[in-house]
Amino acid sequence: MTAALRIPRYPYMWVSGALWHTSRWGMAFLAAYLARSMSESPRLVQLTGVAMWMPLLVGGVIGGVVSDRFDRRRTLMVQLGALIPLVYLLGGLVMVDALQLWMIYPFMVIVGIGWVVDMTSRRAFIFDLVGQRYIDNAMALESLAMAFGMICGTLFGGSAIAAIGVGAAFVGVGGLLTVSLLLFLRVPAGTAAQASVPTAALSKPLAQFRDGFGLLGQYPGLVSILGVTAAVNCFYFSFNPLVQVIGKQLGAGPGRVGVLAAMTGFGMMISSFVIASGRMHRRGRAYCVGSLAAFAFLLVVAQARMYSLALVALLLAGIGTGFFGSTQSTLVMTSVPMEARGRSLGLLSTAIGVLPLGMVALGELAEAFGTTAAITTSATLGALCTVGWLLRHPEVLSMTADASAAAPPAADGDPASDTVEVGLS
């Protein structure tokens, strides 16, 4: 299950990514807590998530163009270097009681821009590092890192609020990001895979931007994948900020709310271990079944009146989203040619970017009809939309670990040239 970790340079990147995910989920938890404590409005709590995820909707394809056109390592360094001082600044403002509610939202937009860079440049850079042979394992490890980050970020947020305060917790997140950057500096520049993309393919950014959307007309499998992604993000993941409200309704304090929020991460970690430990041949089916399972258990969460039931249901929903998340990027990158990987991930970011639209709608429903009715409606609509989309665009269901003809073999010397077959070693 650790095949990709034996690739030179990748372990530094993996640990750096795990710290980034921990920081991102920690910031999301702390921002939602601040909004709830300063306003008591489900709508304003939801808007912290809207602000973080909105950049994926409007900037995903742009991020894909940046990934294909510019040095990915340098882009990632700039992203972390710009965010770190802002995290320290926000923590300082909280500690001196100078933070106002409106300041949270532009800060979360900047965090969201970092998420766009992660979805496009960093994940394409991983493919550059590990190659076609180990990409399934690497993406499963990435999902494991994200699950680890969700667990640690939310647990840290919940426990740190009571122990050291919100401001100091933000400073702690800044420290994690600093370590992430220092580890990433150990990853050398100049990967063979990105260098092998023809210069002509990178020379016209506006044409490349148009070509990003043009991929939808060329690869039906990509369309099938992105439709499921959009449904899951719009109708499932949109509930995450409302965990603060759910926890309050169940009588949980900040620490127990942190545990509740971490259950999704624990579930994702379980399914990521399953995929990383053995060959996931029918990755398309795992992607779709995991999505539908997540919706089913979210319905249980919505109706739960006991903390323990909500805890278990979120764990099981997390297992479903783990199968979804562990296979998502691999499916996208192996459904298009190598030179279009960044743009395909940009389209994936845009599909994920419908999440803030779902968050806005869910926040308004929760404000008007209550959290239980809002989440029940969202989960039901999501399951119906996913099934309906797959009936019309079933291509993803037949995608296997051997179906990667869209990505041509790399040149000799590239790690990707080891084998055309995508498997786990």
Summary, kept brief:
The protein has 425 residues and is an all-alpha fold.
Task: State the CATH topology.
Answer: Growth Hormone, Chain: A
Kindly report how far apart the N and C termini lie. Answer: 7 Å
The oligomerization state is single chain
Q: Structural class of the secondary structure composition? A: mainly alpha
Order of H and E elements: HHHHHHHHHHHHHHHH
Please tell me what the overall shape is.
globular
Uncertain segments of ≥5 residues (pLDDT<50)? 190-203, 404-425
Task: Indicate how many domains the architecture comprises.
Answer: 1
Please give the CATH class.
Mainly Alpha
How many H/I helical runs? 16
Into which percentage range does the β-strand content fall? under 5%
Largest sheet report:
none
Keywords, separated by commas or semicolons:
425 residues, mainly alpha, Growth Hormone, Chain: A, disordered C terminus
What's the structural blueprint in terms of helices and strands?
Elements: H1 10-39, H2 42-69, H3 72-95, H4 101-130, H5 135-163, H6 166-184, H7 192-195, H8 205-218, H9 220-235, H10 243-249, H11 254-277, H12 283-303, H13 307-333, H14 341-352, H15 355-369, H16 371-392
